[in-house]
UniProtKB/TrEMBL annotation:
InterPro entries for the chain: Citrate_synth-like_lrg_a-sub, Citrate_synth-like_sm_a-sub, Citrate_synthase, Citrate_synthase_sf
Molecular function as annotated in GO: lyase activity
Disordered: annotated segments: 246-266
UniProt-listed Enzyme Commission number(s): 2.3.3.16
UniProt-listed SUPFAM superfamilies: Citrate synthase (SSF48256)
Protein's name according to its UniProt entry: citrate synthase (unknown stereospecificity)
Enzyme class: transferase
Pathway, per record: Carbohydrate metabolism; tricarboxylic acid cycle
Signal peptide positions on this chain: none
Alphabetic keyword roster: Lyase, Transferase
Length: 266
């Protein structure tokens, strides 16, 4: 085996995302100085992930989805943990990392899972099955191995307040030809299925709504979680910064005056 060359090392880190050399910074072939002041942050996210700028309609949808997920209060584990962490002296970056690291399959993964479910509905419908029959079959299959159907229902909201604005934007985008509407149709069919025989419906929630948006925009399911992490990081940062200014040290999950219930031997 020949000795590795400088070119071997350079090829080891080959990337099409950015080019950084003395006096040169390019993102997907576009000089950074041309992007600064002319391209939005959301536009740069799209550019880096997709390789080309978004259309105005694509950017509007992506921005709406990112805005919808930024925060859900300190009862969300990612927010609560970041607030506690910053009082432990680890700094703002450590607090953000602590919060982000809780965004797993249960807290933060429902959007990715919902995208997979809706894609399955779409595949069945494309194969000739009626959309409602496809939704019924997929829902039944998912319920065999999950307790909660990802993207539908909410433990706090009878109807997620983010539902109508996001659904309206997607419907407008379908009408304008910005997106196809396959994920929207699948989500609406699942929602109809879940409402069958119930006095109270099980409406789509923000995870399902963003799954629809990301699916319509052509992102693969794993990026739904990555984009959620980007969005929720904004709320995590804001809460950690607020907590840092309150002067607490070693903040725990409950006030010191409240003792946890002891269940061991007396």
């Amino acid at each position: 085996m020949s000795e590795p060359s400088v070119q071997d090392v350079a090829d080891w880190w080959a990337t099409a995302v950015s080019r950084v050399e003395p006096d040169v910074i390019e993102l997907r072939g576009r000089p950074i100085q041309e992007l600064i002041g002319t391209t939005s942050f959301v536009g740069v996210i799209w550019l880096l992930l997709r390789g080309a700028p978004p259309t105005p309609g694509q950017q509007r949808l992506l921005e709406a989805a990112l805005v919808s997920s930024v925060d859900h209060g300190p009862h969300a584990p990612s927010i609560a943990i970041a607030r506690m962490a910053v009082t432990c002296g680890i700094g703002i970056n450590g607090a953000i990392a602590s919060g982000v690291n809780t965004l797993g399959d249960v807290h933060g993964g429902a959007g990715e899972q919902c995208m997979e479910m809706l894609a399955e509905v779409g595949r069945r419908a494309a194969g000739g099955t009626g959309i409602d029959d496809a939704a019924a079959a997929v829902v039944a299959g998912w319920r065999d191995h999950v307790r909660y159907l990802p993207g539908f229902g909410h433990r706090f909201h009878s109807v997620d307040p983010r539902r109508e604005p996001l659904l309206s934007l997607v419907r407008e985008s379908v009408a304008a030809g910005v997106v196809d509407g396959a994920y929207l149709r699948a989500a609406e069919a699942v929602e109809r299925n879940l409402a069958t025989g119930r006095s109270r419906p099980v409406p789509i929630n923000v995870d399902g709504l963003t799954a629809v948006v990301y699916g319509e925009l052509g992102f693969p399911p794993p990026l739904a979680r990555g984009l959620f992490v980007l969005s929720r990081s904004v709320g995590i940062l804001a809460h950690a910064w607020e907590e840092a200014g309150q002067g607490r040290r070693n903040k725990g999950p409950i006030p010191p005056s409240i003792l946890p219930t002891y269940g061991g031997p007396s």
